[in-house]
Amino acid sequence: MQLAVRKATTSPDETPAAPQPPRRPHWTRRVLSALLSLVVLLLAVGFAVAAYSVKSGKWEASSVLSGSMEPKLPTGSVVIAQREPVKALKVGDIVIFHRPDEPERQVVHRIVTIKPSKEGPVLETKGDANETKDPWHVRPDGDTAWIVRHDVPYVGYVVTSIHSETGFRVLLGAGALLIVGGTVVLLWRPKKPTPQTTTP
């Protein structure tokens, strides 16, 4: 016994549904995406410039790993110092120097006294949180000194890696990746789906 198979046909009055155009993202989402991409790019460029400036010797970055300068410089901060002529030093400046008794250690303290001498000025320093002055006298090396100009809280432990060759390369690589990633995000546009058409 054979069963009759009936073909499905469409009525002449029935027309295939027109393909719906792809929905465009809301304008607020597009604006937020553009702003986020711009922020990523600016951060990447900032990291790269900061790393290069520190490595070139124009600026110096040092971590504050003790509480001797609190509350001005909390533990874990990083200070950015600029190389300035020694004659520009004045009482109240925060400077970066190496301890005379432990040259391998850097100190970030405030100048409380400047005494002239034949060999150049002699600095007495003190941490803001300390009750007494430091037990040493600092003689700047050469004609320049590092005067703190900026500080950023809570990132000091990370910035110490800039002074190592590996850390410097990692920082530059991260900056380059952020620049490339931000550029891709800014320029990339999702491919619009091709509308499908049906024939009656």
Automatic annotation (TrEMBL):
EC class (word)? hydrolase
Query: Which Pfam families does the UniProt record give?
Result: Peptidase_S26
Q: Which GO terms describe its molecular function?
A: serine-type endopeptidase activity; signal peptidase activity
Q: What is its EC number?
A: 3.4.21.89
GO biological process annotation, one example:
signal peptide processing
**What GO CC terms are in its UniProt record?**
membrane
- The Peptidase S26 domain is annotated at 43-114
Q: What's this protein's name?
A: Signal peptidase I
Organism (species): Streptomyces adustus
Provide the organism lineage as a comma list.
Answer: Bacteria, Bacillati, Actinomycetota, Actinomycetes, Kitasatosporales
